[in-house]
Specification:
alpha+beta
Length: 185
């Protein structure tokens, strides 16, 4: 049975710092669990990514997390001129704004604890990230990118992400993007 979702008012979003102790987390993916339990602080210390927790505001239990890093959407991510032209047309770039790459934020990791699955927490986190860069865009960021696990592709498509190109060489992930202008227009 799929639940409607969790009350967003009962969630808190926390920038995970060393003082925030992540003692247990289980999203069912060993790599995602290991990252938040053991490696996230090293990535943050070396300025490679920043992680955020989505926690139950009452209990403080971490229900999900995401990690973000700077990225770019480069024209060489596309396979051919047809895909580049389609990307430029969808993005609405005037000729004078046609660059070789555009600023983006990479969603490096997104994990939802098994206790919170089927409650739309992943979508809530994506909407939170999107609003961070639409409402308080400190450096200029046009796109969100993700190397989506193949089993997560339908989730990202449902949340407005598109494929960067028609084919990927990686058998485990697909490179996808979300145009933040879709929220502004």
């Amino acid at each position: 049975m799929v639940q409607e979702g969790i009350d967003i008012e009962k969630l808190s979003f926390i920038w995970i710092r060393p003082s925030y102790s992540v003692k247990n987390f289980n999203c069912g993916d060993r790599d995602l669990d290991d990252f938040i339990l053991n490696r996230a602080f090293a990535f943050q210390k070396h300025l490679l990514s920043v992680s955020y927790a989505c926690a139950d505001a009452d209990s403080g239990k971490m229900l999900a997390y995401c990690s973000l890093a700077n990225d770019r959407v480069a024209l060489d991510n596309f396979k051919d001129k047809t895909e580049i032209n389609r990307f430029r047309k969808k993005s609405g770039f005037p000729n004078e704004k046609r660059l070789k790459s555009y600023p983006a934020v990479k969603l490096c990791r997104l994990g939802v604890d098994v206790s919170a699955k089927k409650q739309r927490i992943g979508t809530i986190i994506l909407n939170y990230i999107k609003s961070m860069f639409v409402m308080d865009n400190k450096t200029g960021c046009r796109f969100l990118t993700v190397d989506a696990y193949l089993n997560a592709v339908p989730f990202y498509e449902k949340n407005g992400f598109r494929f960067m190109n028609s084919e990927d060489d990686d058998p485990h992930t697909r490179l996808m993007y979300f145009d933040l202008m879709d929220l502004v227009a």
